[in-house]
Amino acid sequence: MSPRSPVFAAGSRRAAVPRRLTGTIARQPGRWRSWFAGATVVVLATLIAACGRDDTRAPAGSTLTVLAGSELRDIEPMLADLRKATGVELKMTYAGTLDAVEQLQGGATFDVTWLASGRYAQLVPEVRKRIVASERTMTSPVVLGLKASKARALGWTDASVVTWNDIAQAAASDRLTFGMTNPASSNTGFSALLGLASALSDKGDALEAADIDAKRLAAFFRGQKLTAGSSGWLNDAFVADQGRIDGVINYASTLIALNRGGVLKEPLVLIYPKEGIVTADYPIMLLDADKRALYDRVLAHVRAPAFQRAIAVQTFRKPINPDVTEGRDLYPATLVEIAFPRSLEVIDAILLAFANELRLPADATFVLDTSGSMAGDRLTQLRTAMSTLVAGDGSLTGRFATFRGRERISVIEFSDRPRKARVLELGAATERNAALLQPLQDALNKMSAAGGTAIYTALRQAYIEALERRRGDQRERYYSIVLMTDGDNRDGIGFDEFARWYRTLDQRSRDIRVFAVLFGDANQAELTKLAELTGGRIFDGRKADSLARVFKDIRSYQ
Fold it and tell me: In the chain, where does the domain assigned CATH 3.40.190.10 lie?
């Protein structure tokens, strides 16, 4: 947004006084002396005040490093004006909620953090003690956006009376399908899970582990047909697949943006379940006490009317400043807020129950490049990444990235041809699953690198075998394929032949997405086309601090 934009005009007072004085003098030169004689004191006072405001600006080059929620990429256009108005540059690093908390717990050095919600961070002792100050900046509740035709079919003509129980019953009876982010990685997914779990438990105050109604929750997740690790990608995937899925659970602000973006075949009805919702309030939390003055300056600007209007107009979030009226008509006048759990133990119980008991079980195929170019450090990184999924790594994100109860796992190594797949199916018992996974860990330890690179022959085999498993499956599953390669395709079929074969599949068979990991000298352009073809996503293992982190991120999409 331009600094001349009307949205920012009210915030430009520091420069306004000198311009008005200059204009007056230019237009009325004959009156200058008399005007000056009669207004010397007023002018001096005004100039002193203006100079005073200049003196309080931050020195040029002042910077705050910010660990921000990935949802906040949409405020990037406003940061240039913030820098001009305050003298402070915000250097943003984006992460999912759980990943951000894990970084802070591990001692990552940021001046401030700006997440969708600070509630989880406040429950982690190592993080809580680092928080010097915390102030809300805007709000957006997590709600269900439902296609208007589906709302009518369900009889939900008055969205204000729909409850979480109504939504759960519709999903359990196969009358409602939806997309939702993974609660272990994204605030929207966790907020929805918390609201649903609280409502189904009939609990009036903060949820406890014993209150979780696993049977009713599991019935609800029969309707989930799309998962994701971020709210932004979830929206994009829903738009691409809106003919098959009835609705999406996300921030109200992003759903409003979808309705106004011209990308939907029909509008979404926003449903704020009557029992209550969880609202993101985007707190800016100060971590470095020595940066308090810069923090206060930025916070004052963000909470001032000009920036709050920009928030409402550009992102459709609800402003926190009571003097700003823009955007308030987009939301109900009153909302019931679900109480947040009081301990990490309760949150862990909810997340672990979701992963191992509640959600649709997954069928996850890993197609792994073990060609000659993977020898050495690359193969070591791959082995570590897969081992992290087998046994975890002791981190917050690692606990929820491991292979889950009831999950079926297929691993296909390939070089100049694909090897026979290793397939194992996990049950509900944790100890038994550990025993089932041990042969896979043994095989990972013995992996070796040699030969050429037949990417698309291996990928086609992965699809064929996954489709065969689905045809013979007695239960519904969420299917996905992860492809990791460090080079160009040099053997077997090429991308074009694979794409022609893929397009011969029926529509349902094409709902298995490929999540490709760029590594080493992989062909980015070709893998991008692959992700677009299958509705998947690319993860860049070349820029991450480890391949293990990339594999943990991918688990949010499986």
Answer: 6-131+283-316, 141-280
The answer to whether 167 touches 271, Cβ cutoff 8 Å, is yes
Question: Which tokens go with 20?
Answer: 């008005």
Helix (H) or strand (E) holding 481, with range, is strand 478-485
Q: Looking at residue 61, what is its pLDDT?
A: 66
Residue 366: HSE in the Cβ half-sphere, 13 Å Cα cutoff: 23
- Residue 370's pLDDT is 98
Q: What pLDDT is attached to residue 227? A: 96
Tell me what pLDDT residue 5 has. 33
Please identify every stretch of the chain with a pLDDT value under 50, giving residue numbers as ranges.
1-55
Give the type of residue at 387: S
- Angstrom distances, CA of residue 353 to CA of 209, 277, 339, 396: 10, 20, 19, 16
Strands (DSSP E) along 221-375, which ranges? 224-228, 247-251, 268-271, 279-280, 284-286, 318-319, 362-369
Q: Which two tokens stand for residue 311?
A: 């928030």
User: What pLDDT score does 354 carry?
Assistant: 94
Question: Which is nearest to 194 in space by CA: 133, 117, 124, 284?
Answer: 117
Q: Which of 49, 22, 274, 294 is nearest to 144 (CA)?
A: 274
Phi, psi (5° rounding) for residue 498?
-60, -45
Q: Which fold has domain 6-131+283-316?
A: D-Maltodextrin-Binding Protein; domain 2 (3.40.190)
Task: State the DSSP H helix or E strand holding residue 139, giving kind and residue range, or none if neither.
Answer: strand 138-147
